[in-house]
Each structure stands twice: as structure tokens, then as C-alpha cells.
Amino acid sequence: DERVADIPLEQRPADLPFFHNLDLRQPGWLDDWPPTGPLDPTIHWWSRFVPTARFDDPWVDACRLLIPIDTHGWPAASLAHAHLEPLPAVAVTIDLSVRFHRPADDEWLLVEAVSPIAADGLVAATGRVWDRAGALLASGGQTLLCRRVAP
């Protein structure tokens, strides 16, 4: 939030309300936005849910691992087109697979999302989530249906 506040209003990335639920720390932060050309469709973000970072119920807490695998594929894919701000497309998940490897004892999660291919309205993405100790907590993949939107 602090870094985005320093960006002139007309140059800020689109404000997506979902991401207000997360405290995100982006190690590869770009000061200049939009970029001058396509970027690698990979993100690495430290993420913590707000206002509640962890949950006592193990099933609910496991959702902290599922949600980034479901939602961070599109931000990764859109980096290849970020120079076209505002991005002329949106995408929704139509297929999701998540494998849970161990419970998360940490409120901070390192999320990696990679989108290696997008064609004919379909976007593929993979995701992995680690804790601060480097333990892999969950991994998975998704397919998104992408469509153009009016500017």
C-alpha cells in the first residue's frame, strides 16, 4: 500500500478489491509502471491475510494455501501484457487442483505463480506456497478462461 501510494494516480495498476484482503510484500517491486514491454509471467510475493492472518480451524486455515494458488495465476499471466495498461482482458478460474503437503504454522506465505502459456482464451498457471522456513506447504495448477473487456 505504501509503495502504490507513491505512484502517480494515472500510472497505478488497476485496484482489485480482492487484494485488500492481503498484506503483500513483492521482492521484485517495479518502481516504473506500466513497464515499457512484456514481463516474465512469474510472481513471487510474500503474503499475509488481513485482518486475520491465521485460523484455529485446520480446514479454514488450509484455505490460506488454496486461495493464492487460485488467484495469483492471473496476476502472473497478466505481466506479459502489463505494458498495455489498462489490461484489455480478465480471466476466471475454470479448473483448479491443489495438493496440500503440510499445515501452515506461519502467518507469512511465499507464493509463486507461473503462467507458461495462454492461447485461444485459455490461460494455464501453476502455483506453489512455502513458509518462511522454506517448507513447501501446497502446490497446484489452474486453467483460466480469458475474455476481452472494453477499456
Report on the structure:
The protein has 151 residues and is of the alpha+beta class. The model has no long low-confidence stretch (mean pLDDT 88). The chain has three helices and six strands. Strand 4 (109-119) and strand 5 (122-130) form a beta hairpin. The chain has a six-stranded antiparallel sheet with strand order 1-2-4-5-6-3.
Order of helices and strands: HEEHHEEEE
Helices and strands: which structural class?
A: alpha+beta
Q: What composes the largest sheet?
A: 6 strands, antiparallel
What coarse outline follows from CA principal-axis ratios?
globular
Count of helical segments?
3
Poorly predicted regions: none
What is the radius of gyration computed over CA atoms, rounded to a whole number of angstroms? 15 Å
Strand order of the largest sheet: 1-2-4-5-6-3
- The span between the termini is 25 Å
Query: Which oligomerization state do the chains in this entry correspond to?
Result: single chain
DSSP E strands, number: 6
Please render the helix and strand layout as text.
Blueprint: H1 2-5, E1 22-25, E2 42-49, H2 58-71, H3 73-78, E3 89-100, E4 109-119, E5 122-130, E6 136-148
Antiparallel strand pairs: 1-2, 2-4, 3-6, 4-5, 5-6
